[in-house]
Specification:
The protein has 171 residues and is of the alpha+beta class. Strands 1-5-4-3-2 form a 5-stranded mixed β-sheet. The longest helix is centred in the last third of the chain and has 22 residues.
């Protein structure tokens, strides 16, 4: 399987990632590597609150700090119900879309942020709607075609260039 490229919506690298706790940044790098290698796949977004993101083929990946993840897996393997999880650290989400960038399969990160208050989902929705709106206005606009100046415009430019003025006389 071909490794996927990783791309980002505007604002992800500038706004989202710098605001993450260091432990979550580590988790983000690990999940992005796994997504690019095809070893994991995100969950479809089809719940009522975030169903609109599902319409745009967005997926989510859970991000927790590595220590919480290790403890959760250990408890799981030991058959114990874990007392750690997304609720303890608030939980973070990586929202992405599968796409083709420069004729190669890619993971396009739409947003990364806290689950609390649906922040990551709301940011993703805002960015997608903004991109779709820009795409619609760009494709619906007519291409600019330079036009010959009208006779009125030619006369106006002659009057303002000073060619008709006598020396020493102002307007």
């Amino acid at each position: 399987m071909e490794k996927k490229q990783i791309a980002f919506y505007p604002g992800v690298k500038e706004d989202d990632i710098p605001r993450l706790p260091e432990a979550i940044k580590i988790s983000l790098v690990e999940r992005l590597t796994e997504l690019a290698n095809g070893t994991i796949e995100g969950f479809n977004l089809d719940q009522d609150v975030i169903a609109t993101l599902g319409k745009y083929s967005c997926k989510k990946v859970y991000l927790t700090d590595p220590e919480t993840t290790r403890q959760f897996r250990k408890d799981s393997l030991d058959g114990k119900k874990s007392k750690v999880g997304a609720d303890q650290d608030g939980g973070y989400r990586l929202i992405y879309r599968d796409a083709v960038v420069r004729q190669k399969p890619a993971i396009v990160v739409v947003s990364v942020g806290p689950r609390k208050g649906l922040a990551a989902y709301k940011t993703a929705m805002h960015r997608i709607i903004k991109q779709e709106t820009q795409r619609q206005t760009t494709t619906s606009q007519k291409k600019f075609q330079p036009q010959k100046p009208t006779r009125h415009q030619e006369n106006a430019s002659r009057r303002t260039n000073g060619g008709n003025q006598k020396p020493g006389r102002g307007l």
